[in-house]
Structures are given as C-alpha cells and as structure tokens.
TrEMBL record:
It comes from the Eukaryota. It comes from Triparma retinervis. This is Uncharacterized protein.
Amino acid sequence: MFPSSLSPLSSKVPIQIVPPKTPTVTYFLSEDGAEDGFKKYVCTFFIPRSLLSYRACCELTLHPISTGGSYYELKLVNNRPNVESSVVSSVVDLSLDDSASPKDDDTFYYVETTFVSPKPDFTAGKLLRVLKERIRSGLSSFSCKSSAGATNDLGSAPLPCSGDPTGVYISLDPSLGSECLVAKSACLIPMATFTSLTYRYAISSCAGVWAAPLWMTPDTWQWGGGSGEIDSLEFCPRDGVNMNFAGGGHQITLDDDMDEAGGYVTVRKDADGIVTSLRCDEGDLVDGMCPEPSYSGCDECMSSPSFACFCDGQSNIYGSGGCQPDTDCMWTLVSDIWNGVSGDDGYDGCMTAVEGVVEKGEPNMKTECSISVEKIEVRGEGGGKMVWGDGSPEYCDLLTVQ
C-alpha cells in the first residue's frame, strides 16, 4: 500500500506540507521618531500567499520585554485568503495605531502597524530578533516540537503518493533526529454540509510511535474532548491503533498490528450531527465507503464495540467547540507523525510508555515508522460533491466526488 515511487510535492495537490522554516516571511522594522519620550516603530510583515494555505501565521505573539510582570503581544489573526483580517493587541502597555490594517496583492499578504516601546533603550534590533524567533515558532505545532524546535525541519517531510493526488506518505528517519512531520490540507470542510470522509491507509513499523494517519481538526479548537476533533485513526496511546475524539466521545481500539496493517476508514455525520468512524476491508466497501453503522440513537452509538462515536444526545457535533456561534464551523484534514522532544498536553497524554519499546515522554528512535493515506474522498450534502468553504483552492475538488 505504500507508494512505489515518490516525487517532490506538487503545489496543486490538496494535502500540503507545512513549511519547515520561515526564510520567505520578511518583516521590516523602522524607527519613526518618538512619542512622549517613547520610541515609536513601524512593523510590516510580508507573508507569501503560498504560506497562507498552511495557516502557518494565523497568530504571532510578541513578548519584547517584561515590566513588572506585564508583557506585550502583537497578534495577526484570520489571515486566510478572502477572510477579513485584523491586527489586535490584547495586552497592557502596547499602543497600536488605529490605522493598522491588512493589505494584499497577488503575491504577498501583509500587515503594517505602528506601536510604541515604553522603554527608550529597547532598540529596533532587539525587537527584530524577538520577532524572528516568534515568527519561526509560529510555524511549529503546539503538539510537537522536533529536536530542532519546529515541524518538518530536519531535512525530511511528507511526500505525495505516486499516481494519487489525494495521497500522502510520511516516514521517520531516526538518523535525522526527533522528527515532527505533518501535512495539512487547505480545503475547508463546512461541518453543516459534510456527510462522509473515506480513505485507504497503511501502517508499517509504528509500535511506540504517536501518529495520526488522517484526522479532522476544527478551525477553532477549544474544550478538549468537546472540541469536535475527529481522530479517525491515531496511535494514542502508543501501543495501539485507535479511533477517538481527543478524549471525548466513544473511543475504540482496532485489532490492527502496528508493525503492518492497512484497510479503509469511513467517517460519517448523520442528519442529527452524530459522528461515527468505522474501519473495514476493501471487500466490505459499499459505494466506495465502509458499511454504514447501525444505531438507534446517541446512547447506542456510544456503546458500540465496532465503531467510534461522537455525540451528546442534543446538538452533537454542532454543539462542539468547533461549531459555536463565534466560530466558522469549518474542519480541515491533517496527517502527522509526532516523534519530537516536547509539546502540549496532547504530547504529555499520548507519548505513553510501551513496555520494551520506549519510555513515557521519550521519542522512539529505534523505528522507521511509515504511514500513508490514499484515495481520500469527502462527500457533501446527500452524499454528493462537497462545496468547500470560502478560500479553499480549486484543486480541493480532487478530494470529492464529481
């Protein structure tokens, strides 16, 4: 099931690689006189439009100095193409010019804003050094930091599957260090019209590795197990292949052998917003999907031994953190192997010990774990073509029925 030949990732495929570093994100800082004895700076970010599809720079946090325990943040938010953006300050003592606004052209998306440093000795050079580090860390993942500090930054990265523009292949190379490898989609899935996701997967030599061959993350991630995250396959804990929902819903563990396994998965959302995940073999496919699970309601769904389920008996997925009134209720696809040295609460919870293989919290440096997902198909209303969210590239149609 693994690709027989691999080629450099095309810019016209739906699953994209998060850039490892930020050499093409440029930022200019200029001193613009003084205001009431404080130095005034104009900061401009130039971000290539190609990076926006990765959502790599959705939020940049600036901590230039600390005074009496207070610090400053500069945030760039909602910077997806075709979505109105803004620059905001959420902290004390940072003056942002009211005229700060985003602009764009065919190549760059940029923001220019003016702020005042309350310390005359805080030079532009010092601030620029901080900005560089914060922008670089903005491209890493909260879940995983490699031995170099970010993702896809050790000379290896996800690759496309030969002959399948929807597929992605990820493999560890322990000789490079502790890797965090991730591929993300730029295709926005409106949960209101989503009905199913089906794909073929393959796993090799992954015992003791935290990975997720394919999962769906809401644009707005909040509330932990109630976030609406759909982990259709995840090796968390690291001793099995699981279908879960970031700690929420009803999780099941598959019989798959982590050393060599494969099959198909279908994620469905029914008319009431109940979400299920079911694994099957190729011979079980019906209309290109795994058979539809049978349940009479949320209670029965949440007790099935054969499929995973997310529901609450009320609003179900529509009541999750990703679908609140102040969110866009959009989800996207992600594929990753997290074998880094640190991360967030997810890292702490999923980097479990596997007896005789790896200790808790330690990357597994003894395996070349490989995962692949192919034949990805997302269906919209009535099981038909998905109408993607605003700002999704045209090539997203490769991921849906025609």
